[in-house]
Write a structure and sequence with these properties.
By secondary structure, this protein is of the alpha+beta class. It is 31% helix and 14% strand. It is built from 3 helices and 2 strands; from the N terminus they run H-H-E-E-H. It has a two-stranded antiparallel ribbon with strand order 1-2. Strand 1 and strand 2 form a beta hairpin. It is globular and about 40 Å long.
Length: 78
């Protein structure tokens, strides 16, 4: 619902009810069990993490990940 209403289907936002994903990416908050850090990733078509940005503040997530996507495209033109 959040992905559709707030992100207008532009970004994947998913639930992790069993905390399996956040644990596998070591993205859990150290002092508050069951909560994830705020991390944005850029994943390549080859399923590799090209960029990760971690900050609890929301302000820089979109600008930084967008810049990483643009750099990735510039480095790998089709």
């Amino acid at each position: 619902k959040f992905s559709v209403s707030e992100c207008r289907n532009q970004f994947a936002v998913g639930a992790d009810h069993d905390r399996r994903v956040m644990k596998s990416y070591q993205a859990t908050l150290p002092l508050i069990d069951g909560y994830a850090k705020r991390i944005s990733y850029v994943i390549t078509p080859a399923h590799r993490i090209a960029f990760a940005y971690e900050s609890m503040g929301h302000e820089e997530h979109v600008p930084r990940t967008l810049a990483a996507v643009k750099a990735l495209i510039a480095d790998n033109p089709r």
